[in-house]
Amino acid sequence: MLTDTHCHLFYDDLKDNLPDILDRAKQLGVDRFICVATNLTDALECLKLAERHTNIWASAGVHPHDAKDAPHNLVNRIRELMNHEKMVAVGEIGLDYFRNISDQETQKTVFRKQMSIAQDLDMPVIFHNRNA
Question: Is the pTM of this model over 0.85?
Fold first, then answer.
């Protein structure tokens, strides 16, 4: 029994073929999945998939590229999402200084907020780190 701990099953090209993808994965021994969000909209999409499939779980977080667009109520929104039984991690969070799509200080601020949530809730974190 294997678990894919980092997949973005909400991507249109995957979501549209999800039954086939899950079947192929099962044939290869992968039968559990953590759908990893990159922003709060994605977290809701992951949660919808998790609610429809017993072998999919979800995470909630803001990727460093999306840090510049993080809502002012980020902490409260992630905390609310983490109350759902299918939410198993905070992520995808971290720092990415390779592309600097969001400036470094904004990335750090958003990262710290999300780490605080994970620590307070004693939840695992799904990290993204590149050139940071």
Answer: yes
